[in-house]
Amino acid sequence: MTGIEDELRAALHADADRIRQDGLRPPATFPATRSPGSRRRLTTLVTVAAAAATALVVLGVHLLMSPPARDATPLTVTFTSRTSNVAPTKATITLPVPEVHGTNMKTDQRVSKAIRQQLTEEADVFRNRITSVPGTETRGLSAKVTVGETVTWGHYLSVRFDTSADTGDEHPVNESDVLTFDTRTGAAITLGDMFTDLDKVGDTVRAAMLASRPAGTFHDWHDLETVTLNPSEAGITKPPSCYPTPAGLRCRIDQGQLTPFDYGWIDATVPWKHLTHVLRPGVHG
Q1: N or C, where is the chain less crowded by C-beta within 10 Å?
Q2: How many CA atoms are closer than 13 Å to the CA of 107, on its beta-carbon side?
């Protein structure tokens, strides 16, 4: 067991103890007997408090009469699906078709364009895989991309795409990819935009995956050594799909990438309290 895993689990136990302790309050104490001088000071304090209360009432009326502050542009995405042939083979692919709902045309267009580009890349990957396998021109292979989750955290909207593809191998390909957007601008957001140190975030994510593993999934820390959040690093595994959720940073490793296929996807969510020290200024829910 590594120091990082020890620290993560110790922090979780400490937080649980802190929550239990926060439910307790010290007993009320009674005020000491006041002298005449104390009464005069009390009268002065009461007068000051009354004036402050009047000011607060005036401020409250002003706030009620003032127009409310404008929130971030509301933005949602819905999907339908469409199946098409993958020329020149007999394979088919089913893709979600996005429809962006917002109040700013430029923002909506940026989000729609990024999603469609991602789905086009998914189709290209499937086409390249099956055209490299002999005999696929006469076989009915297929792929389906579905929307696994859409989630909002603060002014961030994330869409996770899950791909299942029959490429002629023993097991189908089950992969996930995610896009995260700033709903105020429609700009695509990377983990590097959210965190100051991806190496530290990666350490915490690996510890969370090790701690939440199904029985027998990972033997020890070394099984996760190749997992990196930095897409520029040439590693054995592709970076997990990570995105912000209200509960924390959720990360998913593709099925069969590190473990036997029967184990399925490996998921872990790191609570934000373990990541606040590496969040960039302005990144919050």
Answers
A1: N
A2: 19
Q: What whole-number distance in Å separates Cα of residue 73 and Cα of residue 229?
A: 29
The stretch 216-245 carries a mean pLDDT of: 75
Q: Which of 174, 183, 169, 107 is nearest to 141 (CA)?
A: 169
Cα separation, 225 vs 206, whole angstroms: 8
Euclidean distance between CA atoms 132 and 125, whole angstroms: 11
Alpha-carbon gap, residue 17 to 22, rounded angstroms: 9
pLDDT at site 159: 98
The residues, any chain, with a CB within 8 Å of residue 34's CB and separated by 6 or more, are: 42
Average pLDDT of the chain?
Answer: 76
DSSP count for the chain of H helices, then E strands: 5, 8
Q: Which of 99, 90, 87, 84 is nearest to 144 (CA)?
A: 84
pLDDT in tens, 103-123: 899 999 999 999 999 999 999
252 pLDDT band, cuts 50/70/90, is: very high
- In order of their start, the domains of the chain are 72-189 (3.30.565.40), 194-285 (3.90.640)
Q: How far is 64 from 222, CA to CA, in rounded Å?
A: 59
Strand residue runs (E) in the chain: 76-85, 92-101, 142-153, 156-165, 173-182, 241-245, 248-253, 266-270
Distance CA 9, CA 227 (A): 20
Q: How many CA atoms lie within 13 A of 69 on its CB side?
A: 3
H or E element that contains 116 = helix 105-131
180, pLDDT greater than 90: yes
Give the separation between CA 190 and CA 102, rounded to whole angstroms: 21
Give φ, ψ of 130 to 5 degrees: -80, -30
Length of the chain: 285
Hunting for tokens 């590496």 — which residue is that? 278
